[in-house]
Amino acid sequence: xxxxxxxxxxxxxxxxxxxxxxxxxxxxxxxxxxxxxxxxxxxxxxxxxxxxxxxxxxxxxxxxxxxxxxxxxxxxxxxxxxxxxxxxxxxxxxxxxxxxxxxxxxxxxxxxxxxxxxxxxxxxxxxxxxxxx
Length: 133
Prior knowledge:
By secondary structure, the protein is mainly beta. Helices cover 0% and strands 47% of the residues.
């Protein structure tokens, strides 16, 4: 086995958003398995203008870093709101509930996480970021 794996996040990784009825407003490509990651997780995500991910989540163990590639928007982190712009890096502790919303230009980002567990250590909550919160 080679000591590396090379994949294109858009061309080689399946978009999972259609399976959950989120396409074409959201694109979500989770590349950890395809890249044979042993300790880290990585995904490519694209949100159309004004789109908010319809659920919030947090992790039992996995810390995440979101890096904005283009566009902008906001992240809700527990009760805080953080504005996002290109090349911002946002670290989120495992227990912090989080959600992402694209601004008027949409939002394109890469999410990194670790340590990577065998199962999914995420707790998800639908409609976590409501209009009132």
